[in-house]
Amino acid sequence: MGSYIPSTQKEREEMLNAIGLDNINQLYDGIPSQVLLHRELNIPSGKSEMEVRAEMSAMAAKNTVFPHIFRGAGAYNHYIPSIVKYVSAKEEFVTAYTPYQAEISQGVLQSIFEYQTEMCELTGMDVSNASVYDGATAAAEAVGMCRERKRQVALVSATTNPDVIEVIKTYCHGANATVEIVPEKDGVTDMEALKSMLCETSACFYVQQPNYYGIFEDCEALGEITHASGAKYIMGCNPIALGIMKSPGECGADVATAEGQPLGMSLAFGGPYLGIMACTTAMMRKMPGRIVGETVDADGQRCYVLTLQAREQHIRREKASSNICSNQALCALTATVYLAAMGPDGLKNVASQCISKAHYAAKEIASVKGFELKYGGEFFNEFVTTCPICPDKLMGELEKKGILGGLPFEKDGEKLILWCVTEMNSKADIDMLVNTIKEVAE
Amino acid sequence: MNVPSNLMYTKTHEWVEIIDEKTVRTGLTAYAAENLGDLVFINLPEVGDSVTNGEALGDVESVKAVSDFMSYVTGEVTAVNEQILDEPGTVNGDPFGTWFVEIGNVTEKGELLTPEEYEKVLAEEA
Amino acid sequence: MELVFELSKEGRGCDLLPSCDVPETAISEKFARVSAPRLPQLSETDISRHYTKLASRTFGVNKGFYPLGSCTMKYNPRINEEVAGLPGFTGIHPLQPEHTVQGCLEVMAKAEEYLCEITGMDAMTFQPAAGAHGEFTGVMLIKAYHEKRGDIKRTKIIVPDSAHGTNPATAVMAGYKVINVPSDPEGGIDIEKLKAVVDDQVAGLMLTNPNTVGIFDKNILEITRIIKDAGGLCYYDGANLNAVMGNVRPGDMGFDVVHLNLHKTFSTPHGGGGPGSGAVGCKKELEEFLPKPCMGKCGEGYGMCCDRENSIGKVKAFYGNFLVVVKALAYILTLGKEGIPEASKMAVLNANYMMQQLSDTYEAAYKGRCMHEFVLTLEKLHHETGVSALDIAKGLLDEGIHPPTMYFPLIVHEALMVEPTETEGKDTIDNVVAIFKKVYNEAMSNPEAMHEKPVKTVIRRPDEVRAAREPVLRYNFD
Description:
CATH architecture of chain B: Beta Barrel
Distance between the termini of chain C: 19 Å
Oligomer: heterotrimer
CATH class of the largest domain in chain C: Alpha Beta
Distance between the termini of chain B: 11 Å
CATH architecture of the largest domain in chain C: 3-Layer(aba) Sandwich
């Protein structure tokens, strides 16, 4: 067994002597006997590093790593450049705490400042925080930012990722606030319904772009409708798509959120991912989480510090708007390095390849009898098709070829599949997918 | 410490200037400004908002602290000193010369201290 | 030093992707971006050197002593990082079919089983991504429990005045009013004052034990009994579990729900502020309210299900920071039933030894036996010389060690809170004790110089007032 305790038996005795004890158990003498555990823990005995490696590797081996992934729905398979993995694995970044001591934390602080700048550029917003837990909690926190005393109702489009809706509901239930779902029409938000639902008690409207079905929403029009009622407008984005798509800033959003996982984070069975949050200057003081600012030191040298801290829980306590402290700093660093490696042209290239390959795949899949594109709208890297056969059977056959097929789901009794295609899927992959579908379907 | 004799005070270190029967102006005392340190942000209500005796009407932030700004009258905000929103440091420079809000239609006044009484409060806290 | 944007050269880049092998589809003008994001254009050499330089300006546990009280900055074992990087974990899509993720589910099930045993709880969720997120989840469980019983008069959560700021902030996020109870002179809960605020409107109590001054509250059973008798539930903030794990279990102290910081107690790294994992455990009677989906043993293998109808819902997409759970499990397997309690005892021994060695120079805020951390008060030094806790902390920076937590808990004036953890050896502690004393002596002999510290770090003291008054939160390209 290991314990990572450096002190030798002799040193332990010396320390015990120094504090006047002769047995280490006496350290707990002050604890009432009724609460002490007078037995061994019922867990296995400690193991050597070699045994632990073997046991953990055996568990990893029980998972199927699909070489060909056509599933997204909130987690996306993108290429991760080597440099991104190496930088984000640097021990100093990995083992540091929150940079409260600015003088010895300039590395982390500057990387966050760079992250904030990149997020502002990507989203077209004025201010970014240092990250929150994931895209879903970013959406929930954004809703919280928009609530005012007389505006307590959050409107959320039905075309939003269901996990995001669930998290928004949980947070709003906590705050004793209400969530209303704006219905969809033909795979996008029903604008007429939105108009009729917005009123003087509406705090905000949240829309996902591209939406859960992969379709582009008319975000400028939605923003205008929302603002006409005096409510705030929140856009949840795909950061890769922002390489070519109109940014939330260009669409008039007050707050932009995104799941940052596509920016260099592995799929990792759902986490750690990255919650991106950015807003207008007017909303800045309502934004939760840590924020890094530029200033100068005692010698007039440019440097970085955590700032606007009086918004946060450690100072404001029960008056804070959020309790967040730890965030996803290392994931934010990962995203920063990813965007530095990609550069403006690289990001645009990834986005272009995603949209191109998704359209190629959509056309090919739709050529199989009974598989039709469910919606007519323009889409990015995801799309929905009908499925004339048992989806489980199809997925099983795809699995035999090492393919993770799209995500099957049902809507109004109809069997559908949400497919995702990225730069990782070559033409040969897509052709193999389509041929397998043909074999099963025909 | 300087305690101007033309003002009234509160036990939470605000000063209150009685303009007339129904109107007051209020700000932060020198003691409070010094203890909070350099102010970096001030949250104030908007004109037309109502304020209540014994409740916070806003708050003031320094780098590492936030403190409620209390109201000891019930009434309605009739003016806000916009300048301090942009330059909170003016409060540190001239606390008694820098008002925060003007409250009109005052219907209730809470516990206000005379300069002499406030000096006693300061002596106790020192 | 330069920002990444200042290193950018038009036309530079990395060659990462093959060219597109399908017909290109362009986005229509209606949806196309108007202005391109100004991302940096860099070679891989530029990127590597830039971030290596930033890493050298960052202080991590691997670099030196990091006694940050209430943060448990223990060593982060490398084997944990390595197993969390296995493609069998990193390459798994969260929405893969159950039979293809049996290894992931086994990790979660084992971690749940062992951590439930360590905490004395019956069930656990790994969905919360951090301690504060776990607190929110835990208090939402309490809320759901009362709501299901139709007990809607309970609107208050009791929090001691010594608590970490997240506790009151959490209670408010969950829709509760916070009732602060003062501490007694030993830093524990004042029982009489607690009784005075407890009534049938109390939903629960949030507490950590040992408390935030590093002392084990002996009255814990009476405290939890008072809350329970009033119909409330007790929430254990696991921030300080490193003092007692394997020796005392929150479940045996009368707590109904706990959160753990896997990134403190169970050795996973802090990553400069995250990602963490705020696992939440609870007793049987709260299990039905845990977030969806529930995961666990299912026939021969492991499964997930979403039919927990009384669940509080989801607090995060998918299942939490999974790779952090992988690291924590590797740690628990390594230490095992012998190593877990031993680690805590050594954490307590190191803290008591260090406090004792410092006692001829520094004044402890609470005398007597501490647990895994202790609080120093520099009130007297400050009064006599004008040197504050902040000045001492900055003096320590010049000596190459990370200062203790400053000005926390709020109930101690000029506080420095020291938590050495068990992964520091006696020689390290002896060395830092000498440094602490050297800095103290400097403060006595030349107090003015202390206000100028640090002078050896890459920057001197930053102007925080300027940063807050005129916020510059992003690079300005123009």
